[in-house]
Amino acid sequence: MQSSQASRTMIGREEELRALAESYGLALQSKPQAVVVAGEAGLGKTRLLREFLHGTAASARVLSGQCVDLGPLAAPYAPIAAVLRSLASEIGLAELLDLAGPGRDALALLLPEAGTAEPALPTANLVLEAVSTVLERAAESLPTVVVVEDLHWADESSLAVLGFILRAFDGGQFMLVMTYRSDDVHRGHPLRAFLAEVERGRYAKNIQLGRLDRDQVRQQVEAITGAPASYELVENVLSRSDGIPFFVEELVGVDGCATATELPSSLRDLLLARYERMDEPVQYFLRVIAAGGTCVPHLLAESAFDRTLDDFEASARLAQQANLIGIDGDSYTFRHALLREAIHADLLPGERTRFHTRYAQALESGDPALRDTAAVAYHWDAANVPDKTFKASVTAMGEAWRSFAYTTSARMGERALELWDSVDRPEQAAGMPRYRLMGRTAEAHNLAGDGERSLAVIRLAAGEPAATGHARARLLADQARYLGFNAKAGSEELLLQALELVPPDTDDNLRARLLNWLAARYMLAGTLDEAIAVATEALNLATAAGNDEERSVAANLRGVSRINAGDVAGGREDLESAEGLAEGKAQALLRFRVNYSDTLNLLGLYNESIEVAEAGIARARQLGVERTTGALLSSNAVEPLFARGDWSRAAALLERNLQLSPPSSFHAYLMRSKIWSTLWGGDIVGADTLFRRWQPLLRELARVEMQSRLHLAILSAELAWAQGELDHAWQEASFILSPAFRPLPGYDLPLLAVAARVLAALRRARVQGPADDERRLRAVLTRDSFWPTHRAWQALHDAELGGTQGTGDDPAEWNRAGVHAAALPAHLRHYIGLRTGQAQLAAGHRTEAAATLRAAVDGGNALGAHLVAKLGGDFAAQAGLALDGPRQRPNDDELTGRERQVLALVADGLSNREIGERLFISGKTVSVHVSAIMRKLGASSRTEAASRALKRN
User: Fold this and answer.
1) Which pLDDT value is given to residue 2?
2) Which range (2-11, 190-199, 823-832) has the least confidence?
């Protein structure tokens, strides 16, 4: 017999169907839901969704998107565009654009029929936000279920949209259901990263379909045949199907399957059995449709079909009646992707070429605005026509780039490069030499996050014989950039080679750009004299050439380097100039904000640093560089957010950017903050686990950046200190005394405080280090005395090593450190309270010690710095101090953080003008702060205010 339909009753999926229904019930309560359904091919993922959607049809709007199997040439955003078109067909295109609001122009990248977007307006982030906004608003008026099937074929751009939706939705009657074929997701498959993010963020419920057992196979056979199944039949079907429902249906659908000998012996034979029983015209129709894909629009299929229209329609109807294909809107779909794959694999070489050629020609002759160039490239490739595949791949590469689908763009570039030697006059067909195509492909890989591949391709490009002179210089510079992005050494040497290819008086703009990149590498490496000299040369060249963008970058780099080298006033002048020159120049302004926000943070100006970094982050999102420059700016914002005491915002920003998978070096910056916050958040074991995992990357970055080497010394020393491994902590912290150390005061001073902390702990443990360790630390401390926050760090350093034994047990020293605490990161203010309490107890002041420790524990817990609270609680327990007494009420007249900074400098004897220079604010603003301080402290003069603050602390 031949069954024309599947079993009417779905067997063995009751629990999974119930889970989907439960999620939908929560969605109806305005609690957005997401479900991922996984399983091997043939387990019934689509059937499960059909049953579920049948139960929601009366109450919900269902929007579907199908990922298409075009191999590495998959068109970007295909399933997302299908979802949007499904919505547009229901509510109208105009209404859909109204739902998008300000993001309507970005939708033109997905729906060309929506209009032509302005080239400079849409960005990758606006696309994500526009899609999310449309669906969120659609769910306000009617419960909305979005179904995206076959994620194993999805391109990375579609996955990015789905990932954004998962993170962004926090209200509305919305449900997202996604399916994928688990046996196709091999190691290294792009979907694995998406699934890992979904699981890590707990964004979705996971439903894993299993195979049917013997009893369920029997039920399915009987549901199909309508008759009791014999033991032999069930055993045969079970053994041949392995409990996969689709194979059970195919086996039962084969004529004369009642005995084992009549069952097909192979999977391919099984899949083709019903197809082969159809008449030849139907088989021909199915072969044509199989060449088109899993879902083929009617007009496209009709164009590819070379027989009469009557033959087409008759064959389509018979294929549908035999349950080999279905109708989805105006498209033909195979009942199962496996069946389409089997028929396509069975095509004769001539048929493969003929059918795919017709599809490519039909696509090329369609409306250019709606043309899917990725599909054109796929069909020409399948038809084995290299010249046309090459040209279509280059075109599709550019279109994918403009849609921010960088992975697709890179793949198209790779395909074109593979065909280069097989094409007649490839340079003319591509519109560029091979080295330039390689360079663009490498940049696409870089923007897509594949650092290793970007480096491999750019090395080949730079080695092309045709790449000479300035062209080769640009490629070497790109290679240097990618090395920096991926935390690898060698950038300086490449840039010096590039500069030799662009001698003076040949191309001042290019030479200035190369010099700026070299100055940036010198600045990061801590070779400040070289950075200043090279940036000065770049500034002079750019000025002579009238290039304000490169002038801004050069002034920016020179300013930061001069400040770190001790010329604070000169550096500030350069930075002010850099900001003015960068106005209206997006990239220069981003680079200014990167360096300026970091400098402000190191100077202790946390609020200003956050403001500059957040402005840069917003602009980076608009420009579509959130995962590169945006991630760097986010790292710059995270540190002052933690320092200011806004730990929840810092953690949220940190997690968001880690999920963007930024380049290696930027990922390292973010992970460093993640490990540090985990440690000071009280999870020492968790911090150690993260550190061990990411230590190779952190140490690789530290080899090429001095600031990263100093950061690493702080992090590893603090982690070892928290674990009680004081010798190891000193080994890490004493890097500041090693010959490899290069001074960068904003990073030196925190490390000096950690080194002092560890040295004092070693002394308390009766461990004696080299006799001149403290003297050498103080020499570095003195050399950095020009830094605006030096007084605060020196006070902390002196407190750590205070007391007669140099073990940090002098309460007076810790009180002085407390006066300057406002200029330090927030966690250290509570750490200072902890150490003050310990010193008070050592001096015999138990009551004061208990109150001080109680405040430190409460403050640490309130901030999120639970390590301070843990250390305080443990110490109090060992000393027999009770910390459960009455808590102090907050004082409305308490000084703000900025007022404490001003007061500390007043106590140091600085004038309003000098304080303004230190804090990068005007003298008038300082005067306002001083007046507020005197009012809050009830002081009649600056001297009295400083005196009262010392007494209060």
Assistant:
1) 39
2) 2-11
- Residue 180 three-state SS: strand
Q: Is the predicted pLDDT of residue 841 greater than 70, yes or no?
A: yes
Asked if 160 and 131 count as a contact pair (C-beta separation under 8 A), the reply is: no
User: CA 798, CA 759: separation in Å to the nearest integer?
Assistant: 12
pLDDT higher than threshold 70 for residue 539:
yes
Tokens 């350069």 belong to which residue? 574
Average pLDDT over every residue of 917-934: 72
pTM of this prediction? 0.72
Q: Do 217 and 241 form a contact (C-beta atoms < 8 A)?
A: yes
Maximum Cα–Cα distance across the chain: 106
Q: Which residues contact 739 (CB under 8 A, 6 or more apart)?
A: none
CA dist 22 and 67 (Å) reads 26
> Residue 765 gets which letter from DSSP?
T
Q: Which CA distances in Å does 138 have to 85, 98, 170, 555?
A: 13, 11, 14, 49
| Alpha carbon separation from 415 to 397, 405, 432, 598 (Å, rounded) | 10, 16, 15, 41
Three-state helix/strand/coil letters over 442-467: HHHHHHHCCHHHHHHHHHHHHCCCCC
Distance in angstroms (rounded) separating the CA atoms of residues 880 and 878? 6
255 has a pLDDT exceeding 60: no
Q: Tell me the three state secondary structure of residue 154.
A: coil
Cβ-Cβ contacts under 8 Å for 211 (sequence gap 6 or more): 40, 43, 242, 243, 244
d(CA 271, CA 274): 7
According to DSSP, the residues that pair with 378 across neighbouring strands are none
Spatial separation of the C-alpha atoms in residues 77 and 156, rounded to whole Å: 8
Q: Could you tell me which residues are beta bridge partners of residue 205?
A: 35
What letter represents residue 375's amino acid? A
Nearest Cα neighbor of 479 from 461, 464, 466, 467 is 461
Q: Is 506 helix (H, G, I), strand (E, B) or coil?
A: coil
Residue 878, amino acid: Q
What DSSP assignment string belongs to 20-39? HHHHHHHHHTT--EEEEEEE
Residue that is written with structure tokens 């220079």 in the block? 917
CA dihedral angle for residue 46, residue 47, residue 53, residue 55, rounded to 10 degrees: -170
Strands 144-149 and 61-66: parallel
Three-state SS at 297: strand
Distance CA 392, CA 387 (A): 9
Contact 353, 383 (CB under 8 A): yes
Task: Mention every residue, 6+ apart, whose C-beta is less than 8 A from residue 911.
Answer: none
Answer whether residue 655 shows pLDDT above 90.
no
CA-CA distances (angstroms) from residue 634 to 197, 598, 765?
Answer: 19, 11, 40
> Are 591 and 581 spatial neighbours (Cβ–Cβ below 8 Å)?
no
The helix/strand/coil state of 715 is helix
The letter for the amino acid at 912 is: N
Radius of gyration of the chain, Cα coordinates, nearest whole angstrom: 34
CA distance linking residue 556 with residue 574, whole number of Å:
6
Q: What is the band of 769 on the pLDDT scale with cuts at 50, 70, 90?
A: low
Average pLDDT value over all residues in the chain: 86
Helix (H) or strand (E) holding 295: strand 295-297
Q: Which residues pair with 332 in a beta bridge?
A: 296, 327
Rounded distance between C-alpha atoms, residue 909 and residue 913, angstroms:
12
Kindly compute the dihedral angle of the four CA atoms of residues 304, 306, 310, 316, in this order, to the nearest 10 degrees: -40
Torsion sign, CA atoms 245, 248, 252, 253: positive
Q: What interhelical angle do 548-565 and 586-602 show, nearest 10? A: 10
The span from the CA of 154 to the CA of 630, in Å, is 26
Backbone phi and psi for residue 35, each to the nearest 5 degrees, phi listed first: -135, 135
User: Residues 144, 111: contact at Cβ < 8 Å?
Assistant: no
Instruction: Return the number of other C-beta atoms located less than 10 Å from residue 184's C-beta.
Output: 16
Residue 63's DSSP bridge partners are 146
